[in-house]
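Format notes (please read before filing issues)

Several people have asked whether sequences and structure tokens are stored in separate files. They are not. Every record keeps both together, in the order shown below: the sequence lines, then the token lines. Line labels are part of the format and must not be stripped during preprocessing.
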Amino acid sequence: MTRPNLILHIDELVLDGFPETDRALLAAAVEAGLARLLAERGLPPAWPAGGAAAHHDGGAFEAQPNAGTARLGLQLASAIYGGLTR
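Then the structure lines:
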């Protein structure tokens, strides 16, 4: 069975309290985390008809001190994916 291609465009990701120097690393970690979650779990049942959502609130999470960008990116990806399933 061939999997359909998925293009996910995040226009804006608002991260309060994170240094500007970590933006690129966090973005890459979020992208990798979302790609993994979507590959493992597929599209959430609540995904909008037609595939487009004007706005999505990924919710909030508590970042652990010194967690590192890879771990924070995975937390962010999980929060975004979890929000899509609500």
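For reference, the curators noted about this record: DSSP finds two helices and no strands in the chain. The longest helix spans residues 23-41.
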